[in-house]
Fold this protein.
Amino acid sequence: MRIALGVGTCVVLGLSWLAPSWAAGSAEAGKTKSAVCAGCHGADGNSPADMWPKLAGQLPEYIRKQLHDFKSGARRNDQMTPMAMPLSEQDIDDLAAYFSSQKVVPPPQDKKDQLAAGEKLFRRGKGMPDQVAACMGCHGPAGGGKNDWAATMKLPPTTLAPAIGEQYAGYIANQLKAFKSGSRANDIGSVMRHIAGRMTDAEITAVAAYTATLRR
């Protein structure tokens, strides 16, 4: 299959359609609009603590989805919902363009004694009875994430896996536990709820520690 990309269009096997609106985002405008985000996420998207995710280098599609989900209530958070509510589509596109264009700074590493177990889960998953697929299958071998809307010719994408390499281990662990408990439920097709539900807390801690060591 040959895929030709033009300005604002994608042509696959003679079929064409408009690309998603995130392509129109302005990183320059997003930088100005991101001032209100800097207190938690950092001026360049590198947050100062693991209670807030690093947004630098994140997939723009993923940033857009999370902001839409906070705005709609699909993802609940007392801090982010009121921040997202007044955002326009252009605001969301611009913020996604800005943060995705920034360079992520690797977090400090801890729990080094758990890296081997975390690497095994990330790269190989685990077998029955609580089978878990390898994380790298969706998130990529370096944790850079994946968006396959162009490959599958489907909108919204069937796979929209965020970049998790170089993310804070504490943040990753907290999100996996939220998926496991069901307090976070905005994953496409309940994929992460199924996976996290089959993981022990020790496995979650280990794989989160390992993802922090990856370099996208």
Notes: The first strand starts at residue 3 and ends at 6. Residues 1-22 have pLDDT under 50 and may be disordered. The chain has two domains: 21-100, 112-211. The chain is about 40% helix and 5% strand.
